[in-house]
């Protein structure tokens, strides 16, 4: 594995976790919104991650490298299919003709857990970059002595 490949891998992990953190923030910001229609109600959004296997497999075939490391890519964002929260509040200004309002299917506890996990993963990738940088600097200093 080339020496600088580790920076590409760690940066792809940090970029993926940034997407995840932004989606958590969006989900938490919209957790208590209200709608009069189930079609207009905000739905929880989650990222879909995948290892960059396609590129890695292509490199393995071409170069014959068996243990090529790969990064992470964001394949897309999916909306949760969990049912919306429906409440009977006929006095609410946004209640439909039957007196129901619709709230998003965002679970704040799950979102906070996602936030902690994403934050920790981002922190781990940062630590990988810092450790690799220190190792390279130590290697350069070996030639000075």
TrEMBL record:
<dbReference type="GO" id="GO:0071978">
    <property type="term" value="P:bacterial-type flagellum-dependent swarming motility"/>
</dbReference>
<dbReference type="Pfam" id="PF06429">
    <property type="entry name" value="Flg_bbr_C"/>
</dbReference>
<comment type="subunit">
    <text>The basal body constitutes a major portion of the flagellar organelle and consists of four rings (L,P,S, and M) mounted on a central rod. The rod consists of about 26 subunits of FlgG in the distal portion, and FlgB, FlgC and FlgF are thought to build up the proximal portion of the rod with about 6 subunits each.</text>
</comment>
<feature type="domain" description="Flagellar basal-body/hook protein C-terminal">
    <location>
        <begin position="99"/>
        <end position="142"/>
    </location>
</feature>
<feature type="domain" description="Flagellar basal body rod protein N-terminal">
    <location>
        <begin position="8"/>
        <end position="34"/>
    </location>
</feature>
<dbReference type="GO" id="GO:0030694">
    <property type="term" value="C:bacterial-type flagellum basal body, rod"/>
</dbReference>
<comment type="similarity">
    <text>Belongs to the flagella basal body rod proteins family.</text>
</comment>
<keyword id="KW-0966">Cell projection</keyword>
<keyword id="KW-0975">Bacterial flagellum</keyword>
<dbReference type="Pfam" id="PF00460">
    <property type="entry name" value="Flg_bb_rod"/>
</dbReference>
<keyword id="KW-0969">Cilium</keyword>
<keyword id="KW-0282">Flagellum</keyword>
<dbReference type="InterPro" id="IPR010930">
    <property type="entry name" value="Flg_bb/hook_C_dom"/>
</dbReference>
<protein>
    <recommendedName>
        <fullName>Flagellar basal-body rod protein FlgC</fullName>
    </recommendedName>
</protein>
<dbReference type="InterPro" id="IPR001444">
    <property type="entry name" value="Flag_bb_rod_N"/>
</dbReference>
<dbReference type="InterPro" id="IPR006299">
    <property type="entry name" value="FlgC"/>
</dbReference>
<dbReference type="InterPro" id="IPR019776">
    <property type="entry name" value="Flagellar_basal_body_rod_CS"/>
</dbReference>
């Amino acid at each position: 594995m080339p020496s600088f490949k580790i920076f590409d891998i760690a940066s792809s992990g940090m970029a993926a976790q940034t997407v995840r953190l932004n989606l958590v923030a969006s989900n938490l910001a919209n957790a208590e919104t209200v709608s009069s229609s189930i079609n207009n109600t905000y739905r929880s959004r989650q990222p879909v991650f995948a290892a960059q296997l396609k590129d890695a497999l292509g490199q393995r075939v071409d170069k014959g490298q068996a243990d090529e490391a790969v990064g992470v890519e964001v394949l897309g964002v999916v909306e949760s299919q969990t049912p919306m929260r429906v409440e009977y509040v006929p006095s609410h200004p946004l209640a439909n003709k039957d007196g129901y309002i619709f709230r998003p299917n965002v679970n704040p506890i799950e979102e906070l857990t996602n936030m902690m996990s994403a934050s920790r993963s981002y922190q781990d990738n940062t630590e990988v970059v810092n450790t690799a940088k220190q190792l390279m600097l130590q290697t350069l200093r070996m030639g000075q002595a």
